[in-house]
Design goal:
The complex is a heterodimer of chains A (887) and B (112). In chain A, 56% of the residues lie in helices and 12% in strands. With 887 residues, chain A is of the alpha+beta class. In chain A, the strands form three sheets. Chain A has an eight-stranded antiparallel β-sheet with strand order 8-9-11-10-14-15-13-12, with helices on both faces. Chain B is an alpha+beta fold. Chain B has two helices and six strands, in the order E-H-E-E-E-E-H-E. In chain B, helix 1 runs antiparallel to helix 2. The longest helix of chain B has 15 residues. Classes of the chains: A alpha+beta (887), B alpha+beta (112). Chains A and B meet through helix 21, helix 26 and helix 29 of A and strand 2, strand 3 and strand 4 of B.
């Protein structure tokens, strides 16, 4: 295209416009024929060069290389000749002095105006050489744009000065701040996009793994080289062949996709919507086959390339940061407390100490344990080491059961999501659980989800751990609901979990079914998790819990959306599904995390409050309606297949039903059939010994089961005996069957290690307890000494005591709810007061969460509910017992 | 044109939405709101804390309708949202002077 001589301004403008449009049409046609985005953007830059330089000579009325001390420079994407079809044309009018800049103001304005009239979006700026030599921290984009500067017209010596002295001097002087600011704005950009590549509708330029990341990697490399040698190099020449082999195709792919978007929309919009994903996939753009392909398949390619660009930037950052190290700081890093015998940690990245491929799985998983524990990034060496270890064949056949302890540890650590992402990216997670391969970068389209299925999963885990990191705050639910600090409410639930690893495992698998060939993703996910949990050798009841969570993971949200959660019938039905408080807690948190991970706005304060209210109402229901939901002998028989599996050869099913008859239904929900079988065996031995006590546990965590005939002071005697031996009761359930046989279970902490350090004491304690319950021994002297000498430490969190009665929830018991600061002997004191007032404990649900004791007792006196006067008497006595100053 | 605002039980929202779609009302604005009318709140206890459930969660639907659709829409909402219990919600109607579609600057009912 040439500038037309001897024409009027309007005519020449029209001619330029027509010429530009015709050339752009040719570029577009060529692009559509080849899918070569990089050629298209280079050709557009060349076309714009012709227009700009032609108009420059025309408007300034000077030859192309004049006037002196003034020149026109292409910067930014235009400068590096990567001008996307509708990208801005960034121009720098460079003057030697302010006076020259002032003189050229008119021609500059005229040139810019004319370019706008031609339909080009021009970003023009005028600067002196001196101004270019300063780092503009408040306008870093300008200083960065100079790294891509290219001469267009005017004084060539000026431009040479800019390139040979001004910019290199700037970099040499301000390199550290320059790099730091560049990394800061990159971090801010990542934060804006939720720190993830895996957006369902990504922004091809700005999102992590997008073209901007590629440029940042180039700039960082160039800055490093300019500082070192003052040379302008192509950044790619400093990258390893391995890096280039990954980065160049990624640049080609993303450039083509961005060109496609620009041409398709007729504007600089880089948002790859579902509609464009379909169009681009229909074309098979940048796929070798070049044929129509499913959009999800094309997007997987996109994510693979975006991941490659993300890795490139990470690697360049690593090199830039390490080049800044002083010997002393390296020494400090080496000695860092985060390093261990297998891995060293340098500047937040973890490196394997051994270079040879790993020969044992714990070592490989140990790397990710470091990441999960400390939030470290993997070094390039670590990535290579994992890949080589998986490929070398030196690792033994994977034993999932052996892998479970380290994997469990990873799941429980605060940066688990980061570790799991790395494991997934390096193919380790699919190696452990092949179903994960199916959800790798998987796009499932809907109006709500913003991330791919795998990323959604990791985000859900991340949100749960964020709850775990929240500080404990003494806040009431009412205040939380009003202040919308609802995260604290869910954090409190999270802290109360007994087996959080089961929740994390359920979250990990809750959506894997979406990638499997099935019309029902929940069912497919259940099949996958069944295989996995069997391989992990989880206990049957734990497998059942994970199965329940995945099977029900949509139910809580569906209930709060489609049912009236203030209707007691809705709550009753939901409580029946949840069955136990522990499962309810996990289901609530799974729902919370699942919804939060849909998109940053999905869990509105309104929805969070609804979720919490359904949880609270259901938990209350589970605690308050135990008494009326008792097993009938015939009903217990429904469990016959499981029942028969644990039935001793010499016992009849009728005898088992006799044992179960009248126990709360909760008993079946909270105990596996294996445990029920053991309880039944104890029940059968009551004829030989009327008190059956079994103790088992390890280290500090112990369990006691007592099966005997009900009698006054029974519960108080057991709690008194445990306290007398220095045990701190964390949890207890007390149930009784229709025949009056109690099944009391206690979980306690052996505070002084008595049972662990002296195994013979286990038997002695069981004997002591049997003697106490048969009236041949007393725990009181031992207890008195224990309580007199015990001064509990001051609680970190004040728990105001609460004593509440409920006469309505149960048809034949009065519910007593006690909340207080936990301390040794508390349960004994409470149960003793109740026994002294002739109250019979029909059911007890005792729980401890941190420093808070939460107890619910179903009480009767002579088989009837408690009168008002007795309730007041109990309240009066318990308030004294629970007062914080009363040890 | 008439603006219809309906405050309904959240659990009835899907039914109401479907009922409106069936009579040809496709566009609506929906908000998650809290409030109460004659349906006052109640006190609950959770782990020793008493709290009052006084502002109850509701859905608010806003639609601007051509006048011939107002009565059918009202009836559709009533039919889908009514349980007969306190707290079923309310419908408010008010006149709208003008409507403009931003994309093509259409005015009046054509813009709805």
């Amino acid at each position: 295209m040439e500038f037309p001589p001897n024409t009027t301004a309007t005519e020449s403008l029209k001619t330029w416009a027509n010429g530009y449009a015709a050339e752009m049409t040719a570029i577009r046609q060529a692009f559509e024929a080849t899918g070569d985005g990089l050629t298209a953007v280079r050709r557009r830059a060349e076309l714009v060069d012709q227009v700009v330089t032609g108009l420059y000579a025309d408007i300034l009325s000077v030859p192309l290389h004049e006037p002196a001390n003034f020149c026109l420079v292409a910067v930014g994407g235009y400068g590096r000749q990567e001008l996307f079809p509708y990208s801005d044309v960034d121009l720098l009018f460079l003057s030697h002095s302010k006076r020259i800049e002032e003189n050229q103001r008119g021609p500059v304005a005229a040139l810019a105006r004319t370019l706008w009239d031609l339909g080009l979006r021009v970003g023009n700026t005028s600067r002196t050489l001196t101004e270019c030599g300063e780092l503009h921290r408040d306008n870093l984009e300008f200083s960065v744009a100079l790294l891509d500067s290219r001469y267009l017209a005017g004084d060539t010596q000026m431009f040479t000065l800019l390139r040979r002295e001004i910019v290199p001097h700037l970099v040499a002087r301000d390199r550290q701040v320059f790099v730091q600011d560049l990394l800061t704005i990159t971090r801010q950009r990542y934060a804006k996009y939720g720190q993830t590549i895996f957006h369902l509708e990504p922004n091809l330029k700005e999102a992590p793994g997008g073209l901007r990341d590629f440029q940042v990697a180039r700039w960082l490399t160039l800055i490093q080289e300019l500082e070192k040698s003052g040379q302008w190099i192509s950044a790619e020449t400093r990258w390893s062949p391995e890096t280039c082999a990954e980065a160049q195709p990624a640049l080609q792919f993303l450039s083509a996709a961005r060109c496609f978007l620009h041409f398709g929309q007729g504007r600089d919009d880089n948002h790859l919507t579902y509609e464009f994903q379909q169009e681009v996939a229909d074309l098979g753009l940048r796929l070798q086959v070049g044929h129509p392909t499913p959009a999800a398949h094309w997007m997987r390619r996109y994510f693979r390339h975006a991941r490659g660009i993300g890795r490139l930037l990470s690697q360049v950052r690593e090199e830039v940061e390490s080049s800044r190290s002083s010997l002393y700081s390296l020494f400090l890093d080496w000695r860092s407390r985060l390093s261990n015998t297998d891995f060293s940690v340098l500047r937040g990245r973890v490196f394997p100490r051994q270079t040879a491929p790993a020969t044992e799985w714990p070592l490989v998983l140990g790397l990710f344990e470091r990441v999960a524990r400390h939030g470290l990034e993997l070094s390039r060496e670590a990535e290579r080491w994992v890949a080589a270890s998986l490929e070398a064949g030196a690792l033994p056949r994977l034993d999932l059961a052996a892998a479970w302890p380290p994997l469990r540890q990873i799941l429980l650590l605060p940066h688990a999501a980061q570790a799991l992402r790395a494991m997934h990216q390096l193919e380790l997670l699919p190696c452990l659980f092949p179903a994960f391969r199916a959800i790798d970068s998987l796009v499932i389209r809907d109006f709500y989800h913003r991330y791919t299925v795998d990323e959604h999963t990791f985000m859900a885990i991340q949100h749960l751990h964020a709850l775990g990191q929240k500080p404990v705050r003494p806040a009431s639910p009412a205040a939380e609901a009003q202040d919308e600090n609802w995260e604290d409410s869910f954090a409190e639930i999270f802290r109360a979990l007994e087996q959080p690893e089961l929740l994390f495992l359920a979250v990990l698998f809750h959506d894997v079914g979406k990638g499997l060939a099935s019309s029902n993703h929940i069912q497919a996910g259940l099949e996958a998790v069944e295989q996995a949990t069997a391989g992990l050798a989880l206990a049957l009841e734990d497998r059942a819990t994970v199965h329940f969570l995945i099977a029900s993971h949509l139910e809580m949200f569906a209930t709060l959306q489609r049912r009236d959660i203030f209707d007691p019938e809705t709550v009753r039905a939901f409580a029946e599904k949840a069955a136990t408080p522990e499962r309810l807690k996990m289901l609530c948190l799974l729902t919370y995390a699942d919804v939060r991970a849909v998109n940053p706005e999905a869990l509105t304060p309104w929805k969070a409050e609804m979720l919490w209210r359904l949880y609270a109402a259901t938990l209350n229901h589970l605690h308050r309606h135990l008494d009326d939901q008792r097993l009938q002998a015939a009903e217990a028989g429904k469990e016959s297949p499981a029942l028969l599996s644990v039935l001793p050869w010499d016992a009849t099913p009728q005898r088992m039903m006799e044992f179960l008859d009248g126990l709360p239904k909760r008993y079946l929900a909270t105990h596996s059939w294996e445990v029920i079988g053991r309880h039944f065996e104890m029940f059968r031995q009551l004829g030989q010994n009327p008190v059956q006590a079994r103790l088992h546990g390890q280290k500090r965590d112990w369990h006691l089961t007592v099966i005997t005939w009900d009698r006054p002071f029974l519960f108080a005697s057991v709690t008194g005996s445990l306290t007398a031996w220095g045990m701190n009761i964390l949890k207890a359930d007390a149930f009784a069957n229709r025949a009056g046989v109690v099944v009391d279970t206690f979980r306690f902490v052996d505070l002084h290690g008595t049972l662990e350090l002296n195994p013979s004491e286990v038997e002695r304690f069981q004997k002591f307890l049997e003697d106490v319950l048969q009236g041949s021994a007393s725990f009181e002297p031992l207890l008195a000494g224990r309580l007199n000498h015990h001064r509990p430490p001051r609680a970190k969190l004040e728990v105001p005591p609460y004593v509440g009665f409920d006469d309505h929830s149960s048809s034949h018991s009065t519910l007593l709810e006690v909340v207080a600061e936990d301390r040794p002997g508390l349960l004994y004191r409470v149960s003793t007061e109740l026994a002294r007032l002739n109250c019979n404990i029909e059911v007890a649900l005792v729980n401890t969460e941190g420093e808070k004791a939460l107890d619910v007792f179903y009480l009767t006196v002579n088989g009837r509910k408690l009168g008002t006067a007795l309730q007041e008497g109990i309240r009066h006595r318990l308030e004294k017992v629970l007062a914080p100053h009363n040890p | 044109m008439t603006k219809l605002e309906a405050i309904i039980q959240s659990s009835r929202f899907e039914s109401v939405k479907n009922a409106l779609l069936e009579i040809g009302v496709s566009g609506m604005t929906v908000s998650e709101v809290r409030g109460h009318g004659r349906q006052k709140g109640h006190t609950e206890v959770y782990r020793g804390h008493e709290y009052t459930v006084d502002l109850l969660p509701k859905h608010k639907i806003e639609i601007v309708l051509p006048n011939n659709l107002v009565e059918p829409a009202v009836q559709a909402i009533i039919k889908a949202a009514k349980t007969g219990k306190i707290g079923d919600g309310k419908i408010f109607l008010s006149k709208v002077d003008e409507a403009i579609r931003i994309r093509n600057e259409e005015h009046g009912e054509a813009a709805l």
